[in-house]
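STRUCTURE:
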């Protein structure tokens, strides 16, 4: 078998593994189940005293005198909505309200503001990194680790790479932006900045001549 043939076989063998790994980050369809430590954002029409962000307690209820009778952890959002509707009906029958799960997510590594963030359902990994101030000059968006429960994935969020751009966060995710190897300040930071400055100067000079 030639070298090129061996490489082709290796690529074909690795492709299904990559697809299977990506599937581990795809959340199942349907409403997400809340977990202790998550936050449930509740907006009740014309009732600011009943609206706000409420933490899911270890006993599966919401940390709030009004909502503490409602068990939310482990239940689909549709079930939680009906349970809250029953509680809210004691204040106003049929009052409209909106629910939004908010998940704790750690964004660390080569980002400008590493921290634990509470992000709404539907936030993508790229948006989570942007929330942390974006990558530093050492950050590698083409090599981002995502730790979800007992599995770890490395995803590529680099420019022009669309495979993972729509994947969204889940409760407890840890997102780690890796460091670029062999970072050279002149090559990777100063020279691009100088090129950008020269380009801006050229545009300004051209504008003055018109």
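SEQUENCE:
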């Amino acid at each position: 078998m030639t070298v090129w043939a061996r490489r082709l076989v290796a690529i074909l063998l690795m492709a299904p593994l990559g697809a299977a790994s990506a599937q581990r980050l795809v959340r199942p369809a349907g409403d997400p189940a809340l977990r202790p430590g998550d936050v449930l954002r509740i907006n009740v029409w014309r009732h600011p005293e009943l609206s706000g962000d409420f933490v899911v307690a270890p006993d599966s209820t919401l940390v709030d005198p009004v909502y503490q009778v409602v068990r939310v952890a482990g239940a689909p959002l549709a079930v939680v909505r009906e349970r809250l509707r029953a509680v809210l009906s004691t204040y106003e029958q049929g009052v409209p309200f909106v629910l939004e799960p908010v998940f704790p997510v750690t964004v660390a590594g080569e980002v400008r503001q590493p921290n634990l963030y509470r992000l709404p359902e539907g936030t993508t990994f790229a948006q989570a990194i942007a929330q942390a101030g974006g990558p530093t000059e050492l950050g590698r968006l083409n090599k981002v680790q995502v730790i979800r429960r007992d599995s770890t994935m490395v995803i590529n969020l680099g420019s022009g790479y669309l495979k993972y751009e729509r994947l969204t966060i889940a409760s407890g995710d840890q997102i780690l932006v890796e460091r670029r190897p062999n970072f050279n300040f002149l090559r990777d930071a100063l020279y691009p900045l100088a090129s950008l400055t020269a380009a801006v100067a050229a545009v300004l000079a051209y504008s003055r001549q018109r």
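REMARK: Residues 103-193 form a domain with the Outer membrane lipoprotein wza fold like fold (CATH 3.10.560.10).
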